[in-house]
Amino acid sequence: MADAANNVVETINGDCHDFKSLLSSSDRDFLVRNNGDQVKIDSLKGKKLGLYISASWCGPCRRFTPNLIEVYTELSTKGDFEVIFVSADEDEESFNGYFSKMPWLAIPFSDSEARKRLDEPFSVMGIPHLVLLDENGKVLTEEGVEIIREYGEEGYPFTPEKIQELKDLEEKAKKEQSIKTILVSRSRDFVVTSDGSKVPVSELEGKTVGIYFSASSFKPSADFTQKLAEVYSKLKENGEKFEVVMISLDDDEESFRQSFGAPWLALPLKDKSCEKLARYFELSTLPTVVIIGPDGKTLHPNAADAIDEHGIVAYPFTPEKFAELKEIEKASEAAQTLESVLVSGGLDFVLGKDGAKVKVADLVGKTILLYFSAHWCPPCRAFTPSLVEVYKKIKEKDDAFEVIFISSDRDRASFDEYYSGMPWLALPFNDARKSSLSRKFKVQGIPMLIALGPTGKTITKEARSLVMAHGADAYPFTEERLKEIEAQIEEMAKGWPEKLKDERHEEHELVLTRRSNYVCDACKENGQVWSFYCEECDFDLHPKCALEKETKADAKEGWVCDGEVCTRAS
């Protein structure tokens, strides 16, 4: 025990950890259960271990722990696998509350030195962190969390060979994909209806199937469920061989039931295959509808946007149909006007600052920026003051310009507070047009700024980047204007050296570099466009600072030199 007392973790043969020195201390040779029982560390000999670094205050830990409990319970019958909880909690009450739900062992909370010592031999950069060791103390992997999430108990005994075997099987399954390989598991060959009835997966063979990933607590999912239900019902009425299988990411039975927007099918709530399929199809957004063709192969990775925008017309979701929809979209864009974008039914107005209704027809012929933003969004609140400044500068030059705020705020008070600092127009709060505009312009995140030209056609969806890079000079945001700006930028640097040395940064040469925004390390002022820059040290010199000594040396008294041009001082 002397080594443990001196905070040394022994290794055997250079790469195997000795369990005793790893887990004990000078006055402790045991671990504890949540009922207070002590278990000798020597009893772990011959077992595989999982060192689980976790904490009750950590949301990802709390979500992962039930997965680990499930795997631990499945493997407990083997008798050769144990998990050791290494708490990162800050007080014993939190430790006890969290540990009370765990069926495995733990290092006592009181032994803080032993708990902290485990950070040294393992790369614990964040939690939850699960280190898996074999019976000899050899580290099998420090990616235990990912392995448990992906493979569960099937990953046992967690050796590299076993994990590679499972990956090879996954690759084979992808190559030989069928509706059965997607939906059937070892313990289940059925899907369920909303009333819990079982439907054999074999009944889906030969059909087009939409694998619908959903979470009813997530508003975009809840809104899309209604649209998908309409499409599903119409296709069923038309006798089409189409089915939806819902993969619910909800946590409770009530939310799961709410996700049944129509009498479609689903995997059972919290089925092990739900997370597995999310990884298999590389789920990155909700809602997602993966289309599986009658042959069991993937036709489209996510048809949700097409269903939302085109409805039943998007069926049967084949590449040919998506090519056809693309042509329809092109034709729609070519015919786009401001009124086709902003007028819907009786909604033919936006709001002015005084609350008065401004007819969309009165805005025709102007350059319009559609500003998707919200008070709760920090990047939005950071960008809005810059946009206000740009707006005022452009309006001074050209009144045929306007911004329309399209809010994602969750309540009227937030909308009113945020809009009070804006000098432009807005869609009314909770306006029905907001969702259709978000779909049309494929708004995946905010802030987003869309520029529409005087004809109403879309100029660019990247107007925010242009405003941040060029300010009011970016107006009217056209390709022609961007080319002019680019030419001006290149002209600005004519005659400047490509590289130079400066006594304020003697370590490396400074290279003339395009930089969007920076702070000059000499004058401490903001700079943009051009910098004399050291990438290795992240060191910037504004051109005026980098070149001032050179220009002073070149100039005669009464003259100022800038690059290749010297002019008489004013």
From TrEMBL:
Classification via Pfam families: C1_2, Thioredoxin_8
Keywords, comma-separated and alphabetical: NAD, Oxidoreductase, Repeat
Residue span, Thioredoxin domain: 1-174, 325-487
Highest taxon listed in the record's lineage: Eukaryota
Residue stretches in coiled coil: none
InterPro entries: C1-like_sf, DC1, Nucleoredoxin-like, Thioredoxin-like_fold, Thioredoxin-like_sf, Thioredoxin_CS, Thioredoxin_domain, TryX_NRX_thioredoxin_dom
Keyword Repeat found: yes
Catalytic reaction list: [protein]-dithiol + NADP(+) = [protein]-disulfide + NADPH + H(+); [protein]-dithiol + NAD(+) = [protein]-disulfide + NADH + H(+)
Entry EC no(s): 1.8.1.8
PROSITE patterns for this protein: THIOREDOXIN_1, THIOREDOXIN_2
Family: Belongs to the nucleoredoxin family.
Protein name: protein-disulfide reductase
